[in-house]
């Protein structure tokens, strides 16, 4: 006689906590064949608002952590993913409808993406920053800094992106010290929430990564127009009206990264896209 | 007459050989514009200096077409070292004609000859010289091993540093291999026209730089033109926002250098006399027509009175008047419209309860002038502490602790620049870390250098001008290899249950 | 030095007023070390900015006369003789024989043993420069090094005053200053000032030479300026002229800023004398601009401002002749002294 299993309730992840949507809404997550898998929370604009508040509150601590520390915290995500690989393979293969081998390959890739970006934490500033030989008695240094709160739409392709796409979008945003509000893959959101559970037990401070399952088309306009959001990663927004999002973002001159097909390849540029170059001058004299 | 009322020491205008009328600079030649010719006046005397052609949409079309032709046939095919040589030539020609350019700029803009001679024009030459050297070294610029130029750059520059802003735009664009259509500000086209003559002397290939003069509508026609690949704008945040909207959804690369409301933070351990100089230079340089001006003085409460006293004493030696007089510190406000804005905002400051102090000095009868002004008893809620005045008006606020100073400094939608004055290097670095501003000057202010990136956070815009970072605005990166193992796993991850279907993960929908 | 055993200092009037009655070295050191620092780059840039002032026509004419009127015409050589001093005095009294409108210099500045010859040569022209007469300034206190016992320095000073010197240019003990013995420097200035006292109870004016080229940093110059003023200096002076760098515009600006701050604090006016290295009119005019824009042009009188220079006057005379005649003059048309 088979045991009756205990299915998980999938909720949102905001400020290190797992609330249901304030709207009380959920939506059905199904297999490719349409069979019910789970209910996911359908986040609302108010959840988005709360997530931005949580993300903003987390900026100072996260950006202020040492780069070495951020690197270790992000590497720890990879470690924990590796330890819970079976769960992720299961969720991916059920929701994406892919083979165990393909799901496993995606987990591998996601883990490797986290590791790749973890290593950049204490290096990107050395590549993107520099001393400047100005004509005068000045110490002059340019360093990249996190831009602040970034809202992101994770890749939405039904296959091959649910965990990997999230990593490929979120990791480069947070590695420099930004915090993120991310809308994960709508059709296959389970691994994103399971990742949030990993995050909650890892060393990532609450509010650094906030996960809002639901509809990009519904939430993105609120995030794009939110005055306390500094930048927008439209990686997975190719199928919604992203031009309208850019127009909204222009109101507060947000930095915007345009949509890409599939999963963005790991690249230093995805880190620097969400940084600001700060140049500090100081007088220099022996007298 | 007292000694301090130094006898007039006017710079001679004999060096100028101005034409009475200037056309557009298209495809290497001066041509008539299709719009109505307009006057450019001296803001110090309101006298007409020259008449300037106005480009309409059809002229902009011609200019972009010329730039496109030059891009495809000449400039993008030329070796980096040859492009560099043209830029070096331009740098040298600017040096050779520096006095002439300085006089023309002071005449047309109203800024003191001391500044055009010692700051604007030397920096123009330096900017071209700096970027000239980059032209054949682009693979070291950080944009990947095979950086590519973008194509035709549409550039719109403001009236506060007409020639310098032109140089900031043109030098990196050309070094990176782009061609340019640039629009000077309506009130300050003159030095761009002299610059066009320099381009002719440099024998820069026709069409590589095209200059279209006219009002805002000309600029709008330019930035919205379908055949430009890059838009670079320096000016107000309002117009920048409009351009960001106009560019949304296109594949034009955009950089914006917009407004500011910089905090200049003076701690009680500062070198006070130098801090006072820095405050003066921060807000009264170029009549305060500076986007990065230190318009909010944040002074530690325990030294407020001393600093304000010293500041007023120091201001009493500032000389306002003829921009061409070599002893003038404060020149003319650039236009009647700008003067009106400064007046309105200053009146608001007073009506909202701030205390106004103005330099007691003689104002010339003709022209646009505004006395150097200090507002004390300003709080963060006052309009003059929030809005960019873009004039010689300083708002003084106080703070008690470093945290409070930082909180007040960052309490603005802008984030272009900031100043810190302290003799304590540790505190300076910690405060600099927490200021949300693209340029932080510690124990100095308003310093510019072609090697030093300049640009803002938040609503002060995005992208940097100057340095290696300034080149990135005109390059498309290419050639970085993505980590192979990750890409292989990612490719396997797209194998479905049905098996076999793969899709690319790299192709961009839009750039 | 501890608080328990404070080293008492001579009760110089200004210092007592500012720092309190029980004047100690500790109190003085705390005060000097608590002064706001100086940012060298900012200071030098301000000086460079002042140097760009363009002084033309009527302003230039006034400036040239002011340079002469506030000049301490100086000879400080081992080879000085009574004859050399008489020649210097002749130049001081009649800088340009071809132009009787040329003002006299403020003073001649000589070694102490040359004072009697200077006084004798000046005769009726000897007196207050504000009255168009010429003073005699003597360097003293084991000038230029200052390396002698206090007794020798005081004797040196008394001798010069007794010989008729109106002004004493003393040097501070830079060694003591650099090793932090501010009290010693202070007490010596107070003592020298007392040695400037004449039999009738009046005092020769005391100029305190900091020798800024040996103090090196601007922070040191600022502290030494402040210390000298507290100890009773009538003038503070940059240099002996025997150490390079001597007077520079930034150092002079800094010292003037101290003088300005002292004036704002107390209402008292202290004089300033840059010395050494100022050879051209153009350079000297920059100093006048710096005075006018830092402490105010009321400082541009012999009582509050001097140039210590030997060759400057002739360059000024050439410029004066150019202004008067409209053509350039040459060195054969001014006298060697």
UniProtKB/TrEMBL annotation, chain A:
Top-rank taxon, per record: Bacteria
Molecular-function GO terms, alphabetical: oxidoreductase activity
InterPro entries: Ald_DH/histidinol_DH (IPR016161), Ald_DH_N (IPR016162), Aldehyde_DH_dom (IPR015590)
Residue ranges annotated for the Aldehyde dehydrogenase domain, each copy included: 22-258
Claim: Glycosyltransferase is one of the keywords in the record: no
Keywords: Oxidoreductase
Keyword Oxidoreductase among record annotations: yes
Family matches, as Gene3D superfamilies: Aldehyde Dehydrogenase, Chain A, domain 1
Protein name from the UniProt record: Aldehyde dehydrogenase family protein
Lineage: Bacteria, Bacillati, Actinomycetota, Actinomycetes, Micrococcales
TrEMBL record, chain B:
Residues forming coiled coils: none
Annotated GO MF terms: oxidoreductase activity, acting on the aldehyde or oxo group of donors, NAD or NADP as acceptor
SUPFAM superfamilies, A to Z: ALDH-like (SSF53720)
Keywords noted in UniProt: Oxidoreductase
Domain Aldehyde dehydrogenase: 30-476
Family from the record: Belongs to the aldehyde dehydrogenase family.
Active site: 257
Gene3D superfamilies xrefs: Aldehyde Dehydrogenase, Chain A, domain 1 (3.40.605.10), Aldehyde Dehydrogenase, Chain A, domain 2 (3.40.309.10)
Organism of origin: Microcella putealis
Name of the featured protein: Acyl-CoA reductase-like NAD-dependent aldehyde dehydrogenase
From TrEMBL, chain C:
EC nos: 4.1.2.4
Domain of life: Bacteria
MF terms (GO), sorted A to Z: deoxyribose-phosphate aldolase activity
Pathway given in the UniProt record: Carbohydrate degradation; 2-deoxy-D-ribose 1-phosphate degradation; D-glyceraldehyde 3-phosphate and acetaldehyde from 2-deoxy-alpha-D-ribose 1-phosphate: step 2/2
Keyword Lyase: yes
Enzyme class: lyase
Acetylation listed as a keyword: no
Gene3D superfamilies, A to Z: Aldolase class I
Reactions catalysed: 2-deoxy-D-ribose 5-phosphate = D-glyceraldehyde 3-phosphate + acetaldehyde
Keywords (A to Z) from UniProt: Lyase, Schiff base
GO biological process terms held by the UniProt record: carbohydrate catabolic process; deoxyribonucleotide catabolic process
Gene Ontology CC: one annotated term: cytoplasm
Pfam family, one: DeoC
Family: Belongs to the DeoC/FbaB aldolase family. DeoC type 2 subfamily.
Descriptive protein name: Deoxyribose-phosphate aldolase
Annotated organism of origin: Microcella putealis
Organism lineage: Bacteria, Bacillati, Actinomycetota, Actinomycetes, Micrococcales
